[in-house]
Amino acid sequence: MSKANGFVLRLSSTRQKVFLNTLREQDSFAEAVDKFSHSRTSPLICFVINTTGLITHIARGRRGMNAGTGQTRLNLTEILDVTTILTATDIIKGVPNRNRKPVEDRFQYGGLLTPRAFEEVIELVARLAPETTSTLDRFTKSTRKRLSELSQKARNTLAYQKESVATALNLAGMDRSDLSEWILDTEGAPTSYLEGLRQVRLREDPMIIHDMIDVPGYNFLKTIKVASSAVFQDGDNRLTVTLANRLPLEEQTGCDLIYYNETFNAFIMVQYKAMESDSNGGDIFRFPEKNSRKKSSVWTLSWPSWPRQNRQIR
Question: pLDDT at residue 50 above 70?
Fold first, then answer.
């Protein structure tokens, strides 16, 4: 893992207004700050503070090019609202005395944190503001401790797999920023580097197979191989899921999965259309060709607890 660090960005009232107005249109912002040294390939967590000392947002940062004499451009992306009322004073008072002075300097005047101060701040913010946990967890002491407890062979294997994935993405001309979101989300040694990725881009067939064998709220009972089906149960309710994708059932019904609730004797037929995020924070469906827009009318049904893609049903 690259050496991460933190940066405290204090905004004037004028720049705070520009910042908030920008967020209404896009999830990125840039600010000229005093020149600092940090690798552009290493994670940088930014704490955005307004004129009242309130920590309003946390973002991923990246050091940009020069923004004038003695200044550097700081680029913010993946900006997260901090809904918990958390102030710079809370952070200063909450860290141990041994690191309070460097933390106080940065949270009062802004700038790059020292590595030790960053560790203390990350632990404190993740504890005080639960909504930030998913963003900050990979930088906490508990995660670092779990990584250190892995065998040398396991750590080497993860490193090789990461480099292989990064190289493949680079050769394909694809964005590698998702790799910086890697987390150790298993108690033991992970069997693959891919397990720690927060999100992946899947095609339709893998989505369907996943949802056929994993139904939230239901316990898996058995498969019916001759019928390409899986049976689940939730208390007295039994659910049978049948695969129709690329089979005669799809040709007849136009659906990919068929759900049959045995208690209510009810069928639900689901057709999948993978969607992509748009620049406005919503989701869009990319039709394969223009005429499809004239022939298709769909209603979107999304399950937030399922993997990060929306499903659509006709």
Answer: yes
